[in-house]
Write a structure and sequence with these properties.
The complex is a heterodimer of chains A (117) and B (111). By secondary structure, chain A is mostly beta strands. Chain A has strands spanning 4-7, 10-13, 19-25, 32-38, 45-51, 57-58, 67-73, 76-81, 90-100, 103-108, 112-116. Helix content of chain A is 0%, strand content 56%. In chain B, strands 2, 4, 5, 9, 10 and 11 form a six-stranded mixed beta sheet that branches. In chain B, strands 1-3-8-7-6 form a five-stranded antiparallel beta sheet, with no helix packed on it. The chains are: A mainly beta (117), B mainly beta (111).
């Protein structure tokens, strides 16, 4: 089945550091990728929808200057947390949609745990 | 490597039928299990977060149960409606270290 690779799996950094998270679709082309944030034992919260070659669409309340999303190719989307602060500490996960034979499926990365000191 | 399975892969039911499907996961060191409803071109909609063995949660016509000792969760839909047609995803929350999704069960409710 389709695989979405997300790296790194864990980041510990100092306040003020920018952190880049990559999401790659390994064996399919993903025109659309999604970025989520998740707090312990809570549900995923959609942050933005990323379409290849165009600007990401951000959900209400998500700062686009803080969470920079780039979807430069059909297999790679990146999320950069600019000048991270302790309140940005969270679990970030990506997903990519794949359409085959008229059916669309959603595949998830394994997530990135960000801890900002 | 954690493995989350869902069955069946797809399901077709008639409007008004009740249905259920299964999410299986490793039973050791359980933390939390999430159920989502996903429609094409939309982001997943959170249904339930299950944490305790024996948990039973309900949201309208949809309910879910959890058995952490044997490693499974059931999702039930009572009196299925065409608008219930979607892919239902479960995800094992591994102490916030990673999040492992099952492949989903695609439900089609025929009018």
């Amino acid at each position: 089945g389709a695989v979405v690779s997300q790296h790194p799996s864990r980041v510990i950094c100092k306040s003020g550091t920018s952190v880049k998270i990559e999401c790659r679709s390994l064996d399919f082309q993903a025109t659309t990728m999604f970025w989520y944030r998740q707090f312990p034992k809570q549900s995923l919260m959609l942050m933005a929808t990323s379409n290849e070659g165009s600007k990401a669409t951000y959900e209400q309340g998500v700062e686009k200057d803080k969470f920079l999303i780039n979807h430069a190719s059909l297999t790679l989307s990146t999320l950069t947390v600019a000048s991270a602060h302790p309140e940005d500490s969270s679990f970030y996960i990506c997903s990519a949609s794949s359409r085959t034979g008229g059916n669309e499926k959603l595949f998830f990365g394994s997530g990135t745990q960000l801890s900002v000191l | 490597i954690l493995n989350v399975e869902q069955s069946p892969q797809s399901l077709h039911v008639q409007e008004g039928d009740s249905t259920n499907f299964t999410c299986s996961f490793p039973s050791s060191n359980f933390y939390a299990l999430h159920w989502y409803r996903w429609e094409t071109a939309k982001s997943p909609e959170a249904l339930f977060v299950m944490t305790l063995n024996g948990d039973e949660k309900k949201k309208g016509r949809i309910s879910a149960t959890l058995n952490t000792k044997e490693g499974y969760s059931y999702l039930y839909i009572k009196g299925s409606q065409p608008e219930d047609s979607a892919t239902y995803l479960c995800a094992l929350d591994n102490y916030g270290q990673n999040f492992v999704f099952g492949p989903g069960t695609r439900l089609s409710v025929l009018p």
